[in-house]
Amino acid sequence: MRRLTVFVLALLVTAGLCAAPASAVAKPPAKHQVTFDKYALMLDGRRQVVWSGEFHPFRLPSPDLWRDVLQKMKATGYTAVSIYFDWNHHSPAPGGYDFTGVRDMDRVLDLAAEAGLYVIARPGPYINAEVTGGGFPAWLSTQAGRARSDAPDYLAAADEWLSRIDRIIARHQYTDGRGSVILYQIENELAATGTAQRNYVAHLYDKARADGITVPVFHNDKGRNGIWVPPDSGVPGTVPGKVDLYAFDGYPGGTCRTDATPGSPNVAPDWGTYGPGGAKGGASASPNTPGFVAEFGGGWFDYWGSNGTYPCTAVRQGPGYERVFYGTNLANGLTLQNFYMTFGGTSWGWLPAPVVYSSYDYGAAIDEGRQLRPKALTMKELGYFLATVPDVAKMDRGDPVTPSSTAVKVYHNVNPDTGVHLYVPMHSPSSATTDDSFTFPLSTPDGSYTVPVRLNGQDAKQLVANFDVAGQHLVYSTSELMAEAAGTLLLHGRPGEDGETVLRYASRPRVDVLAGEVTTTWTGHDLRLNYRHDGLARVRISGGGRPAVTLLLADDTTADTFWLASGLLVRGPDLVRTADAGCSLTGDTKGVRDLEVWGARGPVVRWNGAAVPMWRTASGSLAAVRPLPGPADPRLPELTGWRSAPGSPESSPGYDDSAWAAADKTSTNSTTPPPAGEPVLTADDYGFGVGDVWYRGRFTGSPGEQVSLRYGGGGAGMLQAWLDGQYLGQDVLPSAPASPPTTGTATFTVPEGLRGDGPHVLSVMVRNNGHNEDGGVNDAHKEGRGLISSSLAGATWQLQGGTADPVRGPLNNGGLAGERAGWSLPGFPDRSWTPAPVPAAAAAPGTTWYRTTFTLRVPSGQDTSVGLTLGDPAKPRSGGRYRVLIFLNGWNLGQYIADVGPQHTFALPTGILDPHSRNTLALAVTSDGGAGNGLERVALTDLGSARGGVPVRPVSSPGW
Fold first, then answer.
1. By the number of CB atoms within 10 A of the CB, which of 204, 383, 528, 590 ranks highest?
2. Coil, strand, or helix at residue 593?
3. How many other β-carbons are positioned within 10 Å of the β-carbon of residue 268?
4. What mean pLDDT is predicted for residues 184-198?
5. Which pLDDT band, with edges at 50, 70 and 90, does 28 fall under?
6. Which residue, 635, 605, 489, 504, is CA-closest to 553?
7. For the CA atoms of 367, 922, 911, 380, what is the dihedral angle to 10 degrees?
8. Strand pairing category for 562-565 and 584-588
């Protein structure tokens, strides 16, 4: 009772401490400088280790959730976010651009700055990114000039895009004080280096500067080829270009086996100061600029027909990988690191390139459902370490260190200005996973020491020596330093491993062990603490000629419950998003959690707006009297009340196609032209570059015993055909390889009764699962989609595709009759449709639509990430020959292919999903027909619930 009384009095007395400061007269934004030397990027002269994660706002179509992801990145130690800007996401036609709603790029840049993240802007024009066309809009495929060159028509189109996106990026630059953009990338992985590309790179640089871009400009070199280095590089074998910085990428961490189980670790490469040097040595290609890896593997993409490797990738490239590979990069002086991906998200609608399916989870630190994976917490450990030890931003190689065991090696670097030493022990080779205890000699101005270390499994450690922090002098520690706040130091190590920390004092200090088992030894001026990393030990040290300090000695699991926010150190919640005025916190709890805060100004703490009774601990912290509550059961409903309607009226011989486009072109810029004398059929030539396309060909005379149709369908693309209304069958392009075939020839036997002279109508539907990327600079994106040619000489063709949704954008809709009629939209009058059981035992050939509604009642103040699961997620493939387009409130959120797989669960982003009201679900089920090829079970799935989250407004979802 006494604690509660004190709490109430404190709340009244100190309420003003949490009040917002009085508004001041607005001042012009301060100007800033972004410079660099061979060590690091410098912001206003301060060296920075740029610890960045890749995030694509176009893969999360709910702008308020951008804040959620960006806050999670900041909370887990990232200092920057790298953002691709996807041309095809914004442009349905030449001259047409949309930067509103889910395409509001001003907003995402504002939110990044609000979250405290610097931005690496990557507007292309070409981005690759496993998006259709590598980011090129579909309409660009009809150009004559070669893309990614100095062809005039291509440059004109690229300039059209850049003029618009650069205008947005320019007003968010750190240099003029209006935002946090610190770097700008031109192009991406441009492997060709001919005159046309040299002119192109120079043109892009000049265009950026003319558009007001003042931050340093770079290009991302695929695979460390020494391509597009600054002109003053001076390294033989490099290719200079008009850039300020050299950056490269690499994905060396290893992937999963084909059965979706983790493979063995790879060896971490030395791509900097410990590497082979030269043009292909990574950072050595540009010795006058800092080591910059613009994409380093934070996971890997998965492909149609795999066994579903994202969960496995998150393990294979999990905590051990991060410590070894990212630690090796730091030891090699790579002070700009961007991890691709940190949040992968969803390639919703027709966004995917042929090489990927709808989920772009990537095995990233934040999963597709926006949940933090264990690897995100390891990133927090590393990111907090770098924030606590800024000396890492300038390091030279130190004297070689020889450990007591040949099974390990130790990188040794020294800051030439501060004398701080960095030791990075790991196995030798770094792919080894043995359990090794060893020592290594440490020599600093403090003296010479023998340091005991253990490495068990895939592991590496960031150990500092001769370092001043929190008023203390750290001689060395075998624990990793994670955070410093309010006279408190947090150090951590692997659970069960011994730790040793040595601090220096003028005289013997007082040591109070507040919790845990810690022994102390005083020798000369050194205080040595020995302990085991087991839970949380607390030690208070005072006197000795230094300010008092609290040491928190944690195992990794416990350390991962700590958060840094605005000078506070917080323990307990599953996420701390923000801290305001030293006493108001926001964040998430996924269960009942403690709350403990170091550095709060007053005795009152607010959590998500509610006052929390606290008491003062011996550790100098405030601890909550009662635990914070967790989330409630969201009580997701079953999906019932389904109605269905047939959706392939185009297959009927009498269907009225008089308003369709006539396939009357005789020339094309496609890389797959028709045979001489035949009409151009490729869909892009008629403005249908996205999704399903229908064709109807009329001819007289016998079709013969077989009909052959060459088509382009992208990854796992598909064709269905009907002759005079009779179903001939379907053809599916093979899948399972990471680079699948994207064109094919479908051959069907013509029933004897249809071999007469006609007249005949051949109806064909082609599913376009994306345009090829143009990674080879060979116009691969111009490969034809839809029909390319047919065996029916003399046939006249008409075709129909989709049109861009004015709100949902150019990648939402294809050309199914139901899409064109609004069957996917909320409010469509489906009462005349037939009630339908789901699951369905069989299906008719072609497309059948299913619709239902459901109402959610997720508690207020709770973030429940909801998914839609079709079939059995324990099996990569169900065997049913059908596929489903999933529309939630009119938004196309993905494609399920039952017999290809592997995806069964699809994220339904809050904002598009209304968690407090009614939602409309429409499924376009396209089947080969027959028993076993009908829609399987469909259910809502809780992908993760937390009490907290961010406010999410409904995304505009116009109805019928």
1. 204
2. strand
3. 25
4. 98
5. confident
6. 489
7. 0
8. unpaired
> Cβ(216)–Cβ(244) under 8 Å?
yes
Packing angle between helix 152-170 and helix 195-210, nearest 10 degrees?
30
Residues 6+ apart with CB under 8 A from 850: 642, 643, 644, 836, 838, 922, 923, 925, 935
Closest Cα to residue 573, out of 615, 630, 643, 529?
630
Question: How many CA atoms lie within 13 Å of 476's alpha carbon, on the beta-carbon side?
Answer: 24
pLDDT digits (tens, 9 = 90+) for 426-482: 999 999 999 999 999 999 999 999 999 999 999 999 999 999 999 999 999 999 999
d(C-alpha 250, C-alpha 294), whole Å = 9
Task: For residue 593, list its beta bridge partners.
Answer: 628
The 3-class secondary structure across 42-86, one letter per residue, is EECCEEECEEEEEECHHHCCCHHHHHHHHHHHHHCCCCEEEEECC
Q: Report helix, strand or coil for 496.
A: coil
Angle at which helices 105-115 and 152-170 cross, to 10°: 40
Q: Are 269 and 280 in contact (CB under 8 A)?
A: no
Closest Cα to residue 397, out of 466, 330, 326, 477? 330
Strands 661-662 and 643-646, sheet pairing: unpaired
In what order do the strands lie in the sheet containing 546-555? 480-485, 488-493, 546-555, 536-543, 510-515
Task: Give the pair of three-digit tokens for residue 212.
Answer: 């007001």
Q: Which residue has the tokens 């399903």?
A: 692
Q: Is pLDDT at 22 greater than 60 in this prediction?
A: no
The answer to whether 886 and 893 are in contact (CB under 8 A) is yes
Position 535, amino acid: G
Partner residues linked to 560 by β-bridges: none
CB 118 within 8 A of CB 155: no
In the prediction, which pLDDT does 737 show? 76
For residue 96, give the DSSP letter.
B
Q: What stretches of 724-795 adopt beta strand conformation (E)?
A: 726-732, 743-749, 760-767, 786-790
Q: DSSP H helical segments within 571-660, as ranges? A: none
Summarize the confidence of residues 313-326 as an average pLDDT.
98
Which residues are within 8 A (CB) of 626 and not within 5 positions of it... i.e. 6 or more apart? 613
Contact status, residue 935 vs residue 850, Cβ threshold 8 Å: yes
User: Which residues have a Cβ under 8 Å from the Cβ of 822 and sit 6 or more positions away?
Assistant: 828, 960
Residue 4: which pLDDT band, with cuts at 50, 70 and 90?
very low
* Torsion angle of C-alpha atoms 100, 102, 103, 106, degrees rounded to 10: 70
What average pLDDT does this structure show over 138-162? 98
Which H helix or E strand runs over 315? helix 310-316
What beta strand segments (E) does 319-471 contain?
336-343, 396-397, 408-414, 421-427, 435-444, 447-456, 463-469
Q: Strands across the sheet with 661-662, in order? A: 661-662, 796-800, 693-699, 760-767, 718-723, 726-732
* Residue position matching structure tokens 């100061």: 273
| DSSP per-residue codes, 809-842 | BTTS--S-HHHHHTTTSTT---TTSEE--SS-SE
Alpha-carbon distances of 606 from 3, 10, 72, 118, 611, rounded to whole Å: 16, 12, 20, 28, 4
Whole-prediction pTM? 0.97
Residues for the chain: how many in total? 960
**What kind and span of H or E run contains 90?**
helix 87-90
Give catalytic residue positions: 189, 295
What value, to the nearest 5°, has the Cα angle with vertex 440 and ends 436 and 442? 150
Residue type, 796: T
Given a cut of 80, whether residue 669 has pLDDT beyond it is: yes
* pLDDT tens sequence across 620-658: 999 999 999 999 999 999 999 999 999 999 999 999 999
- Tell me what pLDDT residue 27 has: 77
E strand segments, 232-307: 239-240, 245-250, 292-297
